[in-house]
Every structure is written in C-alpha cells, then in structure tokens.
Fold these 4 entries.
Entry 1:
Amino acid sequence: DYAAEGTAAHLLCEYKLKIALGLRAVDPTPDLTYYDQEMEECADGYVAYILELIEKAKESCADPVILSEQRLDYSKYAQDGFGTGDCVIAGDGLLYIVDYKHGQGVLVEAERNPQMMLYGLGALEIFDCLFDIGTVSMTIYQPRRNNISTYTTAKEDLYRWGREELKPKAELAYSGGGQFLCGEWCQFCKAKHECRARAEHNMALAQYDFKLPPLLEDSEVENVLSKIGLLISWANDIKAYALQAALGGKEWKGWKLVEGRSIRKYKNEDEVAKVVYAAGYDPYEKRLKGITHMEKSLGKTRFSELLGSLVEKPPGKPTLAPASDKRPAINTAKEDFEEEI
C-alpha cells in the first residue's frame, strides 16, 4: 500500500511539474486510488521547489535542460544498473538531481546517499559532455517529514567514488560475492524473512542470556541499545512471514491459527441512527476535529493563517536516540541539579 501511494504521488508530481513547465500532460487524479488533499499540497510544494532550482540554474546558464522522470543509466559502474530521476536540471556549472520521497516512516538524508550518488553518475553520463559541470547537487524532497536534504559534491569526487568504491563492490555483489550487511535497509529487502545473515546478526544478542538490565555492564547495555531496533524489526518480520505462510496452509509445530480480538461494529450506521432517533435519543456526538484532520480540511496555508497562534507543541516524551540523531540533547535531572548549584 505504501509503495502504491508513493507511485500515485510521483505521478501527480510529474503531471504538475510538466504543466508548470508549459508541457502537455494528462491529469492522473481521476485514476489515483490514494489521492487526497495532502498529496495535492505535497506535489504543489515539490513543483515550487523545482521552479526555484530552475531560476537558480539560470543564473549560470541561460537555457538549462529540465527533465522529469528521466531514466539514469549507471551500468558503467554497476552492471545493469539504472534508476529514475524525478527531476534533473543540467546547465553550465551545476547539475541538480531531485528525488521525491512521499513516505513519512523513514527520514531520508541526502548526505553521501548511495542512491542519489548513483543517480548523479547516471546524470553525468548524459550531460557531462554537453555542459561544463563543476559540482553535482543531490536533493531528497520529503514533504511529509518536512525534510529537504541536499548534498553537493565536486564532479571529480563523484567520479572517484564510482571508480574506486562503487564499481569494485558492484562487481563483487553481481558475481554473488561479498559480505551480507544488516541494517535499517533490511526492511526493504525481499529476502528479509529468510536471510540467514540477518538472523545471526540479531541472535547475537542471545550472548547476554537475557539478563536483567542492572546485571549488565554499561558496555553491554550500549551494545544492546545499538541493535535492539533491528532486533524488534526482525522479530516482527518473522511473525508476519509465519502468519502469511500459515494462512497459505503452512503448519508450524507448536502453533495454530486462531481468531484475533474482534471489535463490535454497526451493520448499517444510517439504520442505527434512525432507530435511535425514533426512540427519542441523539445518536451523534459533536467533537472538535483533530489537528491533522483539521489541517487536511483547511489546507496547510489556511490552517496556519487561522490557527497558527492557537496550536502549541509541548515537549515530547524523552526517548533514547543514537548520538548521530540531529535532535539536540535534553538536560537530565542530574544536569539540572548541577546547574542550580
């Protein structure tokens, strides 16, 4: 479902960008299953951002080339490798590649992002002989996470990465060699349920014999913290895989399919309302729309105009995050006490 929603968002972005550039395009919205007001606003924001980049490109090149949903071939470095650049802007001095991400589950950064660097190499294959390109700018546009992340590098540095890092690893992987590396990317892998390397990586935590936290050394707790997110994700994937297999007829020793918890629901809401009204009662309750629902109804701009001063965001509940997390650290009770002294 998430992939289908992302595909719909890309189709809408492509359509709106072509219209903004004065090109002919067919409105896809009548055929979009996942279309809604939020998607409309995300696409509008994406187009506005692209138009800003085009104006910036015109500062060094009077007539830059703008391509939407362009196939980018980087098979020179990774056999059979290619991708699709949501927007590519090329001109003298600078090459822009923008990738739209509609998902909100995983924050995607552009800094040395391998996918974006691959796209950069693919775009250079097309435009490096046509323009005097010095730098390549790669941007992740992720509106539902309020994330516009850009990584800019010298063209020669990108070529060097392609020759010295990418190509040897790609050749090794293509031949079936190399090492399996587990990480957050496993959630997108088709082999995530059966991968032996992923299982061994996560089962390594069994070395602690599931001791209670106070009985572990600080270094052991830190090691568990670094892996526990991947362990939970892996465990959930195993459960989902086992359930789907069981629904298909697979029998797991010691397990059986049963009905889960069920919630009562009305067979026909209109009929329920009529019966309750007839009995002299009001079947409806009136309540204020939630912030997300209200913002979707009004649109982000109008919501901000009308309710911006009436909405507050209290501090979030403290949570542990890796040191690489961009959020600032909060003071602990110990630090607050020391500051008072």
Entry 2:
Amino acid sequence: DADALADADWTLETRLAAALARVGLSAEPGTPLTALSGGQRTRAALAALIFSEPDFLLLDEPTNNLDREGRRAVIDLLAGWRAGAIVVSHDRELLETMDAIVELTTLGAARYGGNWSAYRARKALELSAAHRDLADAEKQAAEVARNMQAIAERKARKDSAGRRKKARGDIPRIMLGAMKERSELTSGSNARLAESRQGQATEAVTAARERIEILQPLTVAVPSTHLATGKTVLKIENVTVGYAPDQPVLRDLSLVMTGPERIAVTGPNGSGKTTLLALFTNQLQPWQGSVRGFTDVAMLDQSVSLLDPSLSIRDNFRQLNPGADENTCRAALARFMFRADAALQIVGSLSGGQLLRAGLACVLGGGTPPALLILDEPTNHLDIDSIEAVEAGLRAYDGALLVVSHDEPFLAAIGITRRVELVAT
C-alpha cells in the first residue's frame, strides 16, 4: 500500500553494493557465505559493519584467526575509513596504520601519538631515560650509604674520646650525664634521619628497576641443539592426503628441511596448513608418498597440548626434562619470566600468552632442546609482551623451525629463511 511504499528503502541495493565494493568484495549479494573463503567472509562482515555509516567503529582483535586475505581486508578498510575508530589489537601490522596508540600497563594508561613505529621509538627513549634514572638512584643510594658510614665513624670517635675523658676523671659527673643525654638524643635523631634517607634511596632504586623491567625488551638464552648445517631434518615426498575419499586437501606435496632452516608455512584458510601439521606429527597418514623425520621434534599447537594442564609449570618442566635438577629447572623458567612462585602456577590456569611461554620454556629450557620445533599460529590471542617474549626465545634457538603463521612482523622478527605457500583447492 502507499504507506509501505513510502517506508521502503529504495536505495538499499545500491548501498549494499557500495558497501561490498568498499571492502573489495565482488561476489553477488545472493552468494551463500558458505561459498566464500575465510578472507571473503571477513570482508562481508566488514561490509555489514560499515553499511550504516557509523560515526565510530569499535573493533576488538579484528585480525585474530584471519588468513592473509582477511587481515588485508581489515587494514584496507581502516586505511580508507574517514570516521572514528577504536581498535583493541596486538597485531603490529595493523597498529602501523593507527593515528595514536594508548598503552595499558600496571603503570596506568599512556597515550602515544603516531603509529607502532613511532610508539616503539618513544618507548626506546623512555627506556634510555629509565636507565639514567636508575643510575642516578643508585648513585644517590651509594652517597647515602657513605654518609651513614661517615656519621657512624664520627660517633664512634666521639664516644671513644668521651670514654677516655671519663676514665681520667676530667669532667664532673653531672656534666657527663648531660653530655650522654645530648649524645643519645643526637644519635637517635641522626639514626632516624639516616634510616629515612636510606629508605627513600632504596625505594627510588626499586622503582627505577621496575620501570626498566616493564620497558626492557626481553632477551633469552637457551642451550644449543648442536644441529649440523647439512643434516636432513625432515623429508616429505610426493604426499597426497585428505580426510574424505577422493577429496585430497594436499596433492603431490614435497618438502625437504636441511639444517637450522626457518620455514614459514602460509596460505589462506582452508589451504591445508592444519593437515600439513598433522602429517608432521603422525596424526594423519598420507594416502600416497612418505613423510620422514630424521631428528627429535616438538610441536606447540595453539592449545600447547604437550603440557599437562593439571600440573604446575615447574612439574611440567621436570616431566619433560627428567634429567634436569631443580636449579636448572628454575633458571630455565626464569628466563621466560616465570620466577619464584610464578613457576608454581597450574598450567590450566594460565592465559594464552603465559601458556605459550610456559611451553617454550619447557621445550627450549632443557639441557638439549629438540632439533626441530613446529609452531601453529603462535601469536594468536597473545599480547605484545608475550609475542616479544616468544620472539626472543625463538631468536636464541639454533635448531630448525617450521611455523604456520599469518603474522608478517612476527615472521620477520624470528628470521624466516624460506616460505611454503599453500593454495586452497
């Protein structure tokens, strides 16, 4: 009727097409979502988000679990978005496109103008200033200690002189009493003042050190794997595999890893990355071809399933490294920021970042780490401090490394030397 015609949105189809085009999605509006790739579905979701032209976008970890295409869609959308946006993210590639960064730490909230690179430059300056503050605080503490020692020595000399005069009988008894009372009052006042100054100096040193611990990038030392440069680590020859008959996920795949190579496995969602990892760990057998490993291997999947969630981090370490004593265990866990009671946390209670750090500590901290380490999307759901802790551990690792990841800054940070690009079938 006339009212329905008046209320109809006659621009709907045009605005729908414009929203899809804006995120680079050329599929027809009637296309089922199940027919789209993961990246295309992300673009469709972004189109729905911007369809009503909101004043502000609120995005919570928008690139988590996305393939390269999906990440690109989010970055492209924000690059062309002229309204406001607040993004919660630990994706450093995405953070490079931001106008400002607000960092939340135990020190509070701090706003930094500019993108990720500008933020890191500012943090480097803050770290340099914190080191200067620590040096000044330590110098002040040393000066207070010297002054306290000088005061104690002067008092000892005066007390010795007083005892000598008393022994000679040069001073009347009533004057000796008054002098003793004044000495005790002065000594007490000096002691309280010295203790106050020493306490303030100690607090200043502690505060400066804590600030450096927050700002200082983590560095990790791990034992060597002693992997020879020319040793064959893994060989895959003409492998075809899948889950349903006549529907192979991977076809005629061959790969050889030699020595301490660092290989990134990339490709869109659905291209077979998980299937490839299942082959490496013997969870899936090939229909044809062969998969052979020539060294010890450890795999950290996204749930770090090699750790027993009912045990503490310490007990998991001792279980995975039965030859390690308590001191070796504690030292290895401390390198990954699990010091003292933190090492006694139950694995099932850990956050995602803590869980991966615990897995790396248990695998890399033993006397002889495995010569091949396989990681499945290690930076998913991690905060930046945890990502940098993982990067530090992997940079110190001298074995062969095979990583499934879409996080380009992470791959660059750990020194990837070769890529295997899978294509969705």
Entry 3:
Amino acid sequence: AAIVVMETQTGHILAYASHLEMGPQRDLNVEATAPAASVFKIVTGSSLVENANMGPDTKECYSGGEQRIEQRDLEADAKRDRWCTTLAGAMGRSVNTVFARLALKNLQPPQLEATAKGYGFGDAIPFDVAVQPSQLHIPTDNLGFARTAAGFWNTTLSPVHAALLSATVARGGEGIRPMIVNDVVDDGGSVVWSAPQAPTLKRSVQANTAQAVTTMMDRTVSDGTSYRAFHDGSGTPFIPNVPVAGKTGTLTDSATARFYTWFTGFAPSRTLPN
C-alpha cells in the first residue's frame, strides 16, 4: 500500500508512506511498476477535450467492456447498445467501452501520446528523490489503442505521479514540483539550500480542458465508483460541503495474481462559498 497527499498550491507533501508485508522494505511511492489502469482515463478524457472538442456532456451509447475490451465492443450496434451515458458519467463510473470507442473514433495514437507526455508520462518526475518514470506504450492497432485509452495495460504509474496528475488538473492544467525538503542545514546551523517557492512545471493541458476534466472527475465521488467511500448508507457525505474530484483504477494481473487498486483526486474541486 502507498499514499501521497500533496498541497496543490505549494507542492508540499503533507503525508507520505508506503508498506510491504513481504520482502525487503522499499519506497513504493517512487516506483512506477503498477499499471495506471483506469486512472489513465484522465489522460484520455483530456485528449478528447483538447483534440476532439468533446466535453463532459458528450453522449455515447455502449455495451460490454466491463472486464475487458474485445473487438465487438468497439462496433456500434443499436441492438446491443442499450446503455447510454455522457463522458462525465463514463468517467465517474469508469465505463471502459465509452472511452475505448470515443478514443478510437476521434483520436490518433500520436495525439493521445502527446497528451500523456504532457502529463509527465515517460519523463522523470522532479522530486527530492529519484522517481521512476511512468511508462507509456500506445499500440497503433485499433484494438490495442482502444484498450490502452480505456486503461487496459501499456501504461504504468507511480503514487507520486498519481498525486501530481490530480494536482495538475486542480491547478487548471499547470503542474507543480512536489517537495518534502524545505531546507538543508549544515553542521553549524546555516541554511545551505532552500526549496524554491511553489516551483511550477510546464503546462500539461489548457485551463478549459482541466475544468472539463474536473467536472468529469466530480462524478466519480458524487455518483460513481467512489460514491460509497465518500457517503454513508443513507447517502450523507463524510466530508459535508466539500466537493471532491477523483478517479479510481482497478486491474487484475492474472499472471502474477496481483490486484491493483487506485484512487487519486483533489478537494475542493470548485470554489467554496464564503
């Protein structure tokens, strides 16, 4: 298990921990060995907004794709496509087929790759210690591309990068360097190095794209895959009057019998009234 909590405006790490029950202890937060899974839908959603002029209200009908994406799931069929939702609804409930179909119909692999690289995939994350780059491989065949866009394999993610991903959306598409160390002091008590104040990174996506993705991620908590984690049995939120945007990701590796589960998000997701 691993957790990273970061203050989005400053980049300061507020909580940082990881734990293994077997084997030698190591820092899981900087390892990009776990699949990004459906967290990658944040990237795909961003690319659909920027490259295909889509938005949270874009509608798509679908069938299948709950556990895997097959070729037949990519083909529109009025008889089978009995369910319809918006892009925001698909983000909230992590509907694989919607993201797979929309990406296949409206994006080219280089466009999705460019959006992912804008969010830091394939590059080292600037941090106080080395962070393994999150991996990115986008197949060019239709089925492989659609599966990747929906979050099935071909991408990995570190917990530090997952926190940065949400922080970038929260900051309107502009990243910020995470940091734990504020000052380095020598034996005489003199400060020999101080962290820069709120060091921003390159812009990943446009501000309107980040806002659209925030609207999509709101649905994860309000009525999607994280609803039960943020509401009691009667529907009362555990954090009243604080809107939360988030994205879950789950994937099972049958070869290693490992089950991966993610949550990344930020709050408040919109300005609170005074």
Entry 4:
Amino acid sequence: CIQSELTVLPYGRQSISAADIAAVTEAMESGWLTTGPKVAEFEQACAEQVGAKHAVAVCNATAALHLAMLVAKIGPGDRVVTSPNTFLASANCAAYVGAIPDFSDIDPISYNLCPQSLSANWKPDVKAVVAVDYAGQTADMPAIAEVARSRGAVVIEDACHAVGGSFEHDGELWKVGGHPWADMTTFSFHPVKTMTTGEGGMLVTDNGEYANKARMLRTHGMIRGDGELQGLGDAAFEERGPWYYEMQDLGYNYRITDFQCALGLSQLRQLELFIARRREIVAAYNEAFSDVAILRTPQLRNEKDRDLTSWHLYTLQIDFESLGITRTQFMKSLAETGVGSQVLYIPVYLQPWYRRTYGYGTGKCPMAEHFYLRSLSLPLYPEMNDQDVSTVIDAIKRLVA
C-alpha cells in the first residue's frame, strides 16, 4: 500500500492501495464524474455484502442519518433517543427535522445504548431510536428493537463504526445492516473508518418505500420519467420530453460521486483483509494490557462476537487519577514517543448547544460520563505493522509503570 512517512502514529488512518488509485483513475477517465453507473454498482455491492434489499449511497453518513429521519417521518413533537457515547451526527439528525434529540445511558460492557436504561427512561413521545455500534461492536439490537417496536418506535442502527461487522444471536450469525432488528442502518466511509470513499455514507434497508424516498430526497426531491409524475398543474406545461423532471418534495444535494464509488468498490474487495488485520492488532493489545491493573481493555457483551466485530476503535479505560497525571499530559507524553491517541467521545448532551437548547447537564447518563473521563483510543488501522503495534504497547506500559 502507498503510505507517507508518519512521525506520529495516528489513532486512525485510511489504507489506499495501487488498485484503489487505478479504480479511481479509470472512473475519472470514463467520462462519468457523478450520477453515473458506479453509484448504482456500489449500492448493489453494498446491499449484497450486508444482505439488505436496498442501499442508497450519499455524500456522508450524516446525510444518511438525516434521510433516515425524513423517510421515517420524524418531525416536530417527536423525540429521538440515542446513545450519548457517539459523534454529534447521531443526535443532530433529530434536531435537523425539528424533533427532540434525547439520550439514554450506555451499558458498562460494550459502551453501547443500554436496553434496560432505554426502557426505564422511555417517554411517550419517543418515535425513533438511533442505536450506535460504538467501536465496531454492535449494540444489543434484538433487545433494543423489542423495547422500541413494542412502543411503536422506528429503529435506526448507526453502524458507522461497524462496516463489515457481524454478531451472533440465538445461535445464528447476522450481518450488520442485514438483520431484522433495524428498520434502517447507516454506514460511514470516512477515511478513519473500516473502509473509505474519502467522504461518503450509505443507508441500507429492506423497506422499498424508505429506499425510494431516500433516493429522491438525496437529489433535491426530484424525479424523472421513471417515477410517478404528478404534472405541473397547467396544460401548457405538460410536454414531457427527455428534459422533464419534477420536484415533489423538499430535498437536498446529498449525492456521492462516481469516482468515490469506484474507490468504495475497490475498498469493499479488501474489506475482509482490513478487518482481519484490525482483529490481529486488537488481540495483541488485549494480550499486552489485560494484566495491567490500571488499564481496562475493551470488553465484549457476547464473547461469541470476538471474531465477528470489525473494530473501528481500540479504547482503553485508564485511571488517570490513580496515575497522578491528567489525560492531556498522558497524551502529550505518548505523542513524544511517536504514538498518537484520541478521546472518543464527549457525551453529546454536554455540548454547549445541547445544554442551551434542551437544558441537559451532567448526571443525565452517569455511565457515559464515567466512560468519557477515563477513555483513550489508541492507534488502530490496517497499515500498522508489528513494530508499530509494539511501539504503542511499549509506550503505554512505560507510562503506566
């Protein structure tokens, strides 16, 4: 793979091969830069990969989450519950449509949305749940779906961390995006994710009505001759030549380009290799850190998922107070040894806009707050070689010693 020299190992990084570059070059030389055949080809490949009936490619995963809200008809007067341990977009998508973003606490094992907390804190105006697969480990989707659907809410799985992942339930293997406990699933192809299109996202679903609506809304709410045309309301304007289009809803420009989808197709062919290397690195970290009392390695809610999780992040829990050092000092010391790190995530409801707008504050989700104060994500990406992994392990052990 093609890689520049790095002075500090970042917490995440894309893997770009000569085959990827060739695929993008071929797409750019084809004459189609956008709205061309590679988009549909990428959608079909992703749908087949996860086992879903429909896939809708968009410019980023935030757009996919926004479209999920729109096609589910979430709006003012509705409440959407998500995990506080996530990126802003998982909650912002509800605010985009005028709904109230709300939060329920995480479980102490997977750091994902806790079904028991979700049930205990349920409000009658909840119309959707956005369940986030933190670090690549799936949320307890069967239990979350049972809570939400029994109360009439839509279930959206934010699987931006879990591209290519699977999980076991009742002896059966289910792919993320292709199981029955989510009405829609969204994926991210940002450069630090499991595979990349540069920027890009995908909405997958078995619901044809949702998929068709999402395709229309991603392109300004327009349809052409292959849709159900309504007419312009005046006989003088009823000629429907090859140019004819109708805007039937207020949509957006959420399109993705052909050369991004060409990169996505090339990356998709390497996805299993990417995930396999991530699992190797996670196993090496776990073995090295499991006997260090001051560290807590990532845990699995179901041990059968050990070889099924796609591992976007490797997040340690570190007792900085017992170390007598702040997290900022710890990260600075790591960087001085050539090891980058990141903190993912600040509980969303503590952000200034959320505090001002909805009156949220500390104490809302105690487990998420506890997790945030101790979490640190270490470098994890396929381009890391064994020496890079050893460098990270040695740096962490020296600091905690």
